[in-house]
């Protein structure tokens, strides 16, 4: 690519492409500079550091992912159909864009999350889906963590071919969604001690 027209947006776009090709950890300032045919130092006028670049990648990928999820759940109302559409869009993005997806898993400064329209939209879509199950805080946060860890774990194992049993992976995924739906409908109350 030519050096002319180098911008932070072009760098981040190239970085997420490189992440999908070489893995998230394969994205370095040196690798990106080589892609643009420039010296490493010339990138510092566009991004402050590798951490800054990776944060920008996470925000871009998070925006792409929630756009796909929001489109999938739009007009579906509530319940299992919405949960299944949400989950399918999540899984498709994770499997189709492994490097971008890995970027969405890094921890981002709370202030940046609060200022990001994409991150706010993620919260709105996710919490909205779960509120339809009648959940309120602190159960909402617990349910978000359960869904995220279930979806992430499944996608991480599937992407490496770790499911070795002959049962179809899609069938197991569908059963997992069924189980999550039943759990969300029957969310347990706060645990109480014997004295409570």
TrEMBL record:
It comes from the Bacteria. Coiled coil: none annotated. The keyword Cell membrane does not apply. Residues 28-47 bind DNA. InterPro entries: Homeodomain-like_sf, HTH-type_TetR-like_transc_reg, HTH_TetR, MT1864/Rv1816-like_C, Tet_transcr_reg_TetR-rel_C_sf. Residues 5-65 form the HTH tetR-type domain. Keywords: DNA-binding, Transcription, Transcription regulation. This is TetR/AcrR family transcriptional regulator. It comes from Streptomyces tibetensis.
């Amino acid at each position: 690519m030519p050096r002319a027209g180098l911008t932070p947006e072009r760098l981040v776009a190239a970085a997420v492409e490189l992440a999908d090709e070489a893995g998230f950890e394969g994205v370095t300032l040196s690798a990106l500079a080589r892609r643009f045919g420039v010296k490493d130092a010339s990138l510092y006028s566009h991004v402050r550091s590798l951490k800054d670049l990776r944060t920008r990648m996470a925000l871009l990928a998070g925006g792409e992912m929630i756009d796909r999820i929001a489109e999938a759940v739009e007009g579906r109302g509530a319940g299992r159909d919405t949960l299944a559409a949400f989950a399918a869009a999540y899984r498709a993005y994770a499997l189709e864009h492994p490097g971008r997806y890995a970027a969405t898993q890094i921890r981002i400064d709370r202030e940046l999350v609060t200022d990001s329209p994409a991150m706010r939209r993620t919260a709105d879509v996710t919490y909205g889906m779960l509120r339809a199950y009648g959940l309120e805080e602190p159960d909402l946060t617990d349910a978000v963590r359960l869904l995220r860890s279930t979806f992430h774990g499944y996608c991480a194992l599937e992407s490496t071919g770790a499911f070795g049993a002959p049962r179809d992976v899609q069938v197991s995924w569908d059963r997992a969604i069924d189980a999550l739906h039943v759990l969300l409908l029957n969310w347990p109350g706060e645990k109480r001690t014997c004295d409570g």
